[in-house]
């Protein structure tokens, strides 16, 4: 959205009342549209209204009026409004203190749901079953709520959760976009739930009831030019309906509803917000009807979430009302079974459907006569919502649990469970044709094979069940002419002849894809968002589509992530909403016959498929699969570095602990160990001694399977550098050199970075440039490439080369004002850098800082320290004329509320004690008071800095935790003492998250923060648009050119 | 058991037999609603039709007597994609299977209803035959030809109430006479919420008998569109024009238009679903409506009728959705 091409003026500034006020003062808009930016946008508008900013500048809130926002968001007003129109709400009360909350809660009775007001994604929400929990969660919830309010509510756990997407225009026309039914009943945040659209188990009468209620509600809330998401709970035993909440804005569910029906909710909502009516907005999909209709579908849509519990091993692996998913995938099928299996394939958890793919944790053998322990585990996993529940339902059914028993445990509607049971039955039928030997001919008959495909079984699953190869199953299918056909998502169930080519695959009798004879290119998208792969890659895929359009080549997008722009039907010429697996991609390629496939932009997902695609004779555009392999293959990479005369940290590989020990001894501790072929630094760790190494090798070996463990010399305290490049095979240009703010050892996806660099010497920079050009040339880079370096003792080491778009491409593109991904696409089609007008590296005068955003507040008790394993789920950008301000903006944008005065708590490890002295002096000079732990205090006092010493947690009170609770600490600087941190530290750091106190866990982060606070004290932050920065860059460049 | 659906133009769809075995011929119509299969099956307006449901998952919430729109299923046949093996809803009393068997309905599942829908959209509505007996195309085609030539009989006497039925709930504001051409329970329920006392009259109630009741208004109900008996209803209604306020619903609307002298014409593909926008040409306000018809009032002929004001157009194709007579 911050792409400068999307709006006339684009501000990349922190989303705070202060900054937005400045933008309003500068731009003097007539209106603001706060309903498209999620809860963040809505909250901003609300606070802008409260502070009188909107009135002062005469700005109207459109899409949802401030009254509508208040009515939906203020629990008390909402409850009153609903009662007024006769809509039931769960029994509840608002608590502004723990005492009040206890009284309300005990009055209603357990279990209770607690919801903090004005919180994003239900953070701080919880369920309490007893007095003790109620007290604990009340306290937490009150803290989490920006207005210090918690709703204590009657639990409707286990009730059906039904959602409606509703739109209303200023002429009072109301339409339902779609109904959605959560497969996971009430108790699991809808953002974490498996969801189907449309609702599957409602009668026509119930459906009509919901529609009538939705109309009443949207009218009463007062949305008169936009959309809303309405969530209901329905008692499955008697049909009683209560309303849970209304989002008077576009939400995650709206995105899903848009992709599920083909109705562009955001586009239409914006038009309604500026005063158009539904009959005036055309339906682009049909091209001849208007948006005043209700989409209807002839397929089943399935949404499933992507979780990252493996990244937070200390977090409880359960789902509740606080959202934990980091991404989602959507799938479409002609029945629930097909959509379910495609959905599981889509979330890329190395599963190929609803089990039966050789990757089940619990084998059929064990399930035949399950032991008591196993049965208990299965029942628990079905009863308590968790990310693996689907698979445990499968185990439960296989172990003989009935549909009804599973319903009783999970409250998942029996209709869904029975559909899963059907899949198991088909699986058993297929298994009867199992080969004795893998190389045997497959014996399954065409009818059963067709049935299995109609139920969504992948060739991979069938190969496993039949003891054969995926390729053989595919050949057999072709022989019987059982192939995927593509059907349109057309908003009208086939009633009208539509022209938007938006497809999903299924096994039916006729093909609707009707591919053109034009030159075309397939772009493989990034799949669901996850840690390590997010919308950065979607940005690149979209730009690839724009570039193709400009070059007159048809673009074909393949992706399954409903949260993305790439899956908007008008981003590309043709859209295939499909899982990104080989089978699904082969099917599309067979129908479309493109001139090539772009795998560089979707992150690791498509890159992992590159070699298989090439081996199948498919043309990979850009850098060759061969050269991609050189960069990915450890040995070949080493040879290349050697050949190019570059430095690499000493390293080796090992399959066993013995081998690892020897490698580590040879290169010396500390070493960085990691499994090969993983993304986002999974299971990567810095090891300082042999005993830790042993434990670690075990863990790493588990992650990477038959692949070796990689061991590198860890360059302590080195500065890390990221370089993004673009090349046309002959010429190569650096897009940006970024200096990490945190020292080496922290995953590049988690560290903050600055462009241009801020401490590196010209000499080092020229070494980095030279190494980058050499490598790009050697790999014949055609498109994008990313390199990572470590700089230590004036030496430059190459850490990694990725011949693909990196996570930082959108950041660099926005910083330097050049759409790198777009240019790279044109290069892959044969253009040269010169033709594209990019002739030299652009080093901007302004500074851009990228900072990462972490999900720690969703995983209570998890330590917040950073390491080589990536943990961030998003990022923000801060731009200003100098480093200090840009950094501060990035911190504010990431939610750190940096203080101008108050108390700073410092506790650092021994190693950092020298550096902290200088910083502490500065902190004092800025007028802050310092609190420190004993060791740190000693070091500071020696240098004549007065500090207050705090006792260890166990040794006296008030301790640091008490001070934080009382709001006496405004900033925490705490560097971890070692691999296994002390208990005190972990407690301090997790409390920091609870109270939302700004913190840093690295010395370099602390330096940048203090530096920024100093800047902030001198002068207030200003705002400037991206277009203004880019305009300046252009003059800067042309001056450079004339100089030469 | 296998079954096939063959269209008049020779196109064949295969599937599995559901409900009763047998052979049925009827005009093939599409409905795009996601829910409401039981209501559609029991709607008298669908008498003699072969109904195709475009939503692929049918039977999910079972069947309950309270959802019947009339006393029985009137369809000639039903065509669906997937029949749910199980059903789940607190109100359900039986499965769709058993209901179909009980109602002697011939149906076919596992049909590629999407392809069928696209085919009918392109070619227009036509006759079809569902058969579990034979799949000889020639035989089936000749049966459809025979059906076409056959003189159809009016179903109105079967569908309509046999004698006047009075429905009074609570204190009524208005006394409304309803000429029953196949009214559905859901319309009756809606009228009741308007505080009307209703007198359901047999379809052939004479004009003077209606006037004798001194109703505040007359509603000519929905029902089958192409029925032979409608001719007489139209001439009867002519005698009521300007004698009392009349509202025509669906087929009743067509009857009223014809009584006023307008013509009705058949559309290539009917409007059948729950998502049709009807907008008042004088403003931006409209309603999303439930529709179930293949014929519309011809605009040219209607515009020749004096004093007519069209108050609602179907926004999708600008056909007449509502018209107001003086």
Q: What does this entry look like structurally?
A:
The complex is a heterodimer of chains A (1044) and B (326). Chain A has 1044 residues and is α+β, with helices and mostly antiparallel strands. Chain A has 36 helices and 35 strands. In chain A, 39% of the residues lie in helices and 18% in strands. Chain A has a 7-stranded antiparallel β-sheet, with helices on both faces. In chain A, strands 28-27-24-25-26-29-30 form a 7-stranded antiparallel β-sheet, with helices on both faces. In chain A, strands 14-15-18-17-16-19 form a 6-stranded mixed β-sheet, with helices on both faces. In chain A, strand 24 and strand 25 form a beta hairpin. In chain A, helix 13 packs across helix 15, helix 16 packs antiparallel against helix 17 and helix 22 packs across helix 23. Chain B is α/β, with parallel strands linked by helices and 326 residues long. Chain B folds into 2 domains: 148 residues, Glucose Oxidase, domain 1; 170 residues, Rossmann fold (3-Layer(aba) Sandwich), CATH 3.40.50.880. Chain B has 10 helices and 18 strands. A 7-stranded mixed barrel of chain B has the order 1-2-8-6-4-3-9. The N and C termini of chain B lie far apart (56 Å).
Short description:
The complex is a heterodimer of chains A (1044) and B (326). Chain A has 36 helices and 35 strands. Chain A has 1044 residues and is of the alpha+beta class.
Write the layout of secondary structure elements.
The complex is a heterodimer of chains A (1044) and B (326).
Chain A: H1 17-27, E1 31-32, H2 38-50, H3 53-57, E2 60-61, H4 66-73, H5 75-84, E3 92-95, H6 98-108, E4 112-116, E5 126-128, H7 131-144, E6 150-154, E7 160-168, E8 174-182, E9 195-197, H8 204-221, E10 226-234, E11 241-247, H9 252-261, H10 265-273, E12 300-306, E13 327-333, H11 336-346, H12 364-368, H13 372-383, H14 389-398, H15 403-410, H16 414-431, H17 446-454, H18 459-466, H19 470-479, E14 485-488, E15 502-506, E16 520-524, H20 535-550, E17 554-559, E18 574-577, H21 582-592, E19 596-598, H22 604-615, H23 625-632, H24 634-643, E20 651-654, H25 657-667, E21 671-675, E22 685-687, H26 690-704, E23 709-713, E24 719-728, E25 732-743, E26 753-755, H27 762-778, E27 782-792, E28 795-802, H28 809-816, H29 820-828, E29 847-853, E30 874-880, H30 883-893, E31 903-907, H31 913-925, E32 929-932, H32 934-942, E33 948-949, H33 960-965, E34 971-974, H34 983-994, E35 999-1000, H35 1003-1018, H36 1026-1043
Parallel strand pairs in A: 1-2, 15-18, 16-17, 16-19, 17-18, 31-32, 31-34, 32-33, 34-35
Antiparallel strand pairs in A: 3-6, 4-5, 4-6, 7-8, 7-10, 8-9, 9-12, 10-11, 12-13, 14-15, 20-23, 21-22, 21-23, 24-25, 24-27, 25-26, 26-29, 27-28, 29-30
Chain B: E1 2-7, E2 12-19, E3 23-31, H1 37-41, E4 49-53, E5 57-58, E6 77-79, E7 82-83, H2 96-102, E8 106-109, H3 113-123, E9 127-131, H4 137-149, H5 156-159, E10 165-167, E11 174-179, H6 185-193, E12 196-201, H7 207-212, E13 217-220, H8 230-238, E14 246-248, H9 251-260, E15 264-279, E16 286-297, H10 299-303, E17 309-314, E18 320-324
Parallel strand pairs in B: 3-4, 4-6, 5-7, 6-8, 11-12, 11-13, 13-14
Antiparallel strand pairs in B: 1-2, 1-9, 2-8, 3-9, 10-12, 15-16, 15-17, 17-18
Helix pairs in contact in B: 8-9
């Amino acid at each position: 959205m911050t792409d400068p091409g999307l709006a006339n003026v684009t501000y990349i500034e922190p989303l705070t009342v202060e900054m937005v006020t400045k933008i309003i003062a500068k731009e003097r808009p007539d209106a603001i549209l706060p309903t498209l930016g999620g809860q963040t946008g809505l909250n901003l508008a609300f606070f802008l209204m409260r502070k009188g900013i909107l009135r002062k500048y005469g700005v109207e809130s459109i899409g949802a009026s401030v009254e509508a926002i208040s009515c939906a968001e203020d629990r008390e007003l909402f409850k009153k409004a609903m009662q007024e129109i006769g809509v039931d709400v769960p029994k509840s009360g608002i608590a502004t203190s723990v005492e009040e909350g206890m009284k309300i809660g005990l009055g209603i009775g357990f279990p209770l749901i607690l919801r903090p007001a004005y919180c994003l994604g239900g953070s701080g929400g919880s369920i309490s079953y007893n007095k003790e929990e109620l007290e604990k969660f009340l306290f937490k919830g009150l803290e989490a709520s920006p207005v210090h309010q918690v709703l204590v509510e009657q639990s409707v756990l286990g009730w059906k959760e039904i959602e409606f997407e509703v739109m209303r225009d200023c002429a009072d026309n109301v339409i339902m976009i779609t109904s959605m039914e959560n497969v996971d009943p009430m108790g699991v945040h809808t953002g974490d739930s498996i969801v189907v659209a449309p609702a599957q188990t409602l009668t026509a009468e119930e459906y009509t009831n919901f529609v009538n209620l939705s109309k009443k509600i949207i009218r009463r809330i007062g949305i008169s030019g936009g959309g809303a998401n309405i969530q209901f709970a329905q008692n499955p035993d008697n049909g009683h309906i209560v309303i849970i909440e209304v989002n008077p804005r576009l939400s995650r569910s709206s995105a899903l509803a848009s992709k599920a029906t083909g109705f562009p909710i955001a586009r239409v909502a914006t038009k309604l917000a500026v005063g158009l009516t539904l009959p005036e907005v055309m339906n682009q999909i049909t091209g001849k009807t208007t948006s005043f209709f209700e989409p209807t579908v002839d397929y089943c849509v399935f949404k499933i979430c992507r979780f990252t519990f493996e990244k937070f091993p200390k977090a409880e692996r359960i789902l509740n009302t606080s959202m934990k998913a980091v991404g989602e995938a959507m799938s479409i099928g002609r029945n629930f079974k097909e959509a379910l299996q495609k959905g599981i394939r889509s979330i890329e958890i190395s599963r190929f459907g609803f089990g039966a793919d050789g990757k089940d944790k619990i084998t059929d053998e064990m399930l035949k006569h399950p032991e008591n322990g196993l049965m208990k585990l299965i029942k628990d996993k079905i009863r308590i919502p968790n990310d693996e529940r689907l698979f445990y339902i499968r185990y439960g059914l296989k172990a003989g649990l009935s549909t009804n028993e599973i319903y009783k445990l999970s409250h998942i509607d029996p209709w869904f469970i029975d559909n899963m049971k059907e899949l198991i039955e088909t699986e058993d039928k297929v298994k009867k044709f199992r080969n004795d030997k893998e190389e045997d001919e497959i014996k399954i008959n065409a009818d059963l094979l067709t049935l299995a495909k109609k139920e969504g079984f992948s060739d991979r699953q069938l190969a496993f069940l039949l003891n054969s190869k995926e390729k053989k199953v595919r050949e057999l299918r072709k022989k019987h002419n059982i192939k995927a056909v593509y059907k349109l998502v057309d908003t009208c169930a086939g009633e009208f002849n539509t022209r938007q080519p938006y497809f999903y695959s299924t096994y039916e009798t006729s093909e609707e894809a009707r591919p053109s004879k034009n030159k075309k290119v397939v772009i493989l998208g990034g799949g669901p968002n996850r840690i390590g792969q997010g919308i950065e890659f979607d940005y690149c895929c979209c730009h690839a589509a724009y570039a193709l359009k400009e070059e007159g080549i048809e673009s074909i997008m393949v992706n399954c992530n409903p949260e993305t722009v790439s899956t908007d039907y008008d981003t590309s010429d043709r859209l295939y909403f499909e899982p990104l697996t080989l089978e699904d991609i082969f099917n599309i390629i067979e129908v479309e016959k493109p001139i090539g496939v772009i795998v560089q932009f979707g992150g690791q997902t498509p890159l992992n498929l590159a070699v298989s695609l090439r081996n199948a004779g498919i043309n990979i555009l850009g850098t060759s699969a061969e050269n991609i392999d050189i960069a990915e293959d450890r040995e070949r990479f080493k040879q290349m570095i050697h050949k190019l005369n570059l430095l690499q940290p000493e390293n080796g590989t090992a399959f066993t602990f013995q081998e690892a020990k020897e490698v580590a001894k040879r290169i010396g501790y500390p070493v960085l160990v990691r499994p090969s072929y993983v993304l986002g630094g999974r299971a990567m760790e810095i090891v300082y001694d042999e005993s830790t190494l042993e434990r670690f090798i075990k863990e790493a070996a588990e992650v990477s399977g038959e692949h070796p463990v990689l061991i590198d010399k860890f360059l302590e305290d080195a500065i890390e550098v990221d370089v993004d490049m673009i090349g046309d095979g002959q010429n190569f240009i650096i897009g940006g050199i970024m200096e990490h703010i945190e020292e080496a050892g922290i995953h590049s996806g988690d560290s903050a970075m600055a462009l241009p660099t801020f401490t590196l010497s010209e000499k080092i920079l020229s070494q980095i440039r030279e190494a980058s050009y050499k490598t790009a040339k050697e790999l014949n880079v055609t498109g994008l490439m990313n390199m990572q370096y470590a700089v230590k003792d004036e030496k430059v080491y190459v850490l990694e080369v990725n011949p693909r778009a990196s996570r930082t491409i959108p950041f660099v593109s926005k910083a330097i004002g050049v759409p790198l991904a777009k240019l790279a696409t044109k290069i892959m089609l044969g253009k040269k850098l010169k033709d594209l007008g990019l002739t030299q590296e652009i080093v901007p005068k302004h500074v851009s800082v990228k900072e990462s955003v972490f999900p720690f507040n969703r995983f209570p008790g998890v330590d917040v320290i950073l390491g080589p394993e990536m943990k961030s789920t998003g990022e923000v950008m801060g731009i200003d004329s100098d480093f200090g301000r840009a950094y501060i903006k990035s911190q504010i944008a990431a939610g750190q509320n940096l203080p101008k005065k108050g108390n700073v708590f410092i506790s650092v490890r021994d190693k950092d004690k020298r550096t902290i002295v200088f910083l502490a002096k500065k902190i004092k000079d800025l007028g802050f008071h310092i609190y420190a732990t004993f060791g740190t205090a000693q070091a500071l006092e020696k240098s004549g800095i007065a500090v207050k010493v705090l006792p260890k947690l166990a040794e006296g009170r008030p301790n640091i935790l008490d001070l934080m609770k009382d709001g006496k600490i405004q900033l925490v600087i705490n560097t971890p003492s070692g691999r296994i941190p002390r208990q005190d530290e972990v407690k301090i750091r997790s409390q920091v998250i609870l109270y939302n106190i700004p913190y840093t866990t690295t010395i370099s982060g602390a330096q940048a923060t203090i530096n920024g606070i100093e800047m902030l004290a001198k002068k207030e932050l200003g705002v400037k648009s991206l277009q203004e920065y880019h305009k300046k860059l252009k003059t800067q460049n042309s001056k450079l050119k004339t100089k030469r | 058991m296998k079954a096939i659906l063959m269209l008049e133009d020779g196109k064949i769809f295969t599937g599995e037999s559901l409900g009763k075995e047998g052979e049925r011929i009827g005009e093939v119509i599409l409905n795009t609603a996601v829910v409401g299969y039981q209501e559609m099956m029991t709607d008298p307006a669908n008498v003699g039709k072969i109904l195709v449901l475009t939503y692929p998952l049918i039977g999910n919430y079972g069947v309950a007597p309270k959802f019947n729109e009339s006393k029985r299923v009137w369809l000639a046949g039903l065509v669906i994609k997937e029949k749910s093996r199980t059903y789940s809803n607190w109100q359900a009393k039986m499965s769709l299977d058993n209901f179909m068997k009980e109602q002697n309905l011939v149906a076919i599942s596992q049909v590629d209803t999407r392809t069928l829908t696209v085919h009918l959209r392109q070619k227009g509505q036509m006759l079809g035959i569902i058969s579990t007996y034979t799949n000889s195309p020639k035989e089936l085609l000749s049966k459809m030809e025979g059906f076409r030539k056959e003189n159809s009989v009016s179903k109105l006497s079967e569908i309509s109430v046999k004698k006047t039925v009075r429905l009074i709930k609570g204190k009524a504001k208005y006394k409304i006479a309803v000429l029953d051409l196949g009214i559905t329970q859901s319309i009756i329920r809606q009228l009741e919420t308007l505080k009307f006392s209703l007198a359901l009259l047999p379809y052939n109630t004479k004009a003077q008998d209606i006037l004798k009741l001194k109703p505040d208004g007359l509603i000519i109900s929905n029902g089958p569109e192409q029925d032979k008996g409608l001719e007489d209803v139209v001439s009867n209604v002519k005698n009521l024009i300007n004698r009392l306020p009349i509202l025509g619903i669906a087929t009743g609307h067509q009857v009223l238009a014809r009584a006023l002298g307008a013509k009705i014409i058949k559309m290539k593909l009917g409007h059948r679903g729950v998502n049709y926008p009807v907008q008042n040409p004088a403003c931006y306000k409209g309603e999303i409506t439930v529709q179930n018809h293949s014929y519309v009032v011809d605009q040219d002929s209607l515009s020749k009728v004096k004093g007519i004001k069209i108050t609602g157009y179907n926004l999708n194709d600008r056909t007449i959705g509502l018209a107001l007579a003086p």
